Amino acid sequence: QSVLTQPPSVSGAPGQRVTISCTGSSSNIGAGLDVHWYQVLPGTAPKLLIFGNSHRPSGVPDRFSGSKSGTSASLAITGLQADDEADYYCQSYDTSLSGYVFGTGTKVTVL
Amino acid sequence: EVQLVQSGAEVKKPGESLRISCKGFGYSFTNYWISWVRQMPGKGLEWMGRIDPSDSSTKYSPSFQGHVTMSSDKSISTAYLQWSSLKASDTAMYYCARGLWGSDFDYWGQGTLVTASS
Fold it and tell me: pLDDT (tens digit, 9 = 90+) per residue, A59-77?
């Protein structure tokens, strides 16, 4: 069962900005645990997109940015491109479960 | 270069046993936990549990406790996920991923597709 809630889908035209929310609770995001984001392209393994709430691994374009506030986090994609069409997942650690938790996932569609 | 390389796709019958593997390259295998993540067809990512290869200690998600067993052999930098009796509902893609307490998963295996069908 996912304890991090994301919108099922978001969409935007090429060049636009979209944001994906990730809502948790006081036992994960609200407890000060970091939020990380992954991109899952069809038929491929998840790829780390944002770590530590807002940091990009080497090679990830600066069109992708992350933020965190309270019990929620957000991923923003600016200058939307066709190859950004993918599923996106947030992830954190839950102190009540003593384990990792993923978000419900969001499908990004480029119109 | 850090890599996690998983064993190939498996087709089994319900009730059969199975063990899949994840071998680490390019880093000290005992310095990072290995987590297993399930993705059922058309569904999201689910954390199954993790193993610490340094001492083989494990932590399972309550959803998977008792259904799978995680193990590792640090001498060959390999982690394993096994089932004693597969169910049709175990059909999914399984990923291994590297991480630490509270951290991200920075490297992932390519995935192992497990199909359990009569």
Answer: 999 999 999 999 999 999 9
Beta strands in chain B (DSSP E): 3-6, 10-12, 18-25, 33-39, 45-52, 57-60, 69-73, 78-83, 92-99, 107-108, 112-116
8-state DSSP, B8: P
Which residues of chain A make contact with B62, given a CB cutoff of 8 A?
Answer: 97
Q: Tally the residues of chain B.
A: 118
Q: Give A2's contacts in chain B (Cβ within 8 Å).
A: 44, 46
- Contact at CB, A45 and B95, closer than 8 angstroms: yes
Cβ distance of A100 and B35 shorter than 8 Å: yes
| Per-residue pLDDT, A1 | 58
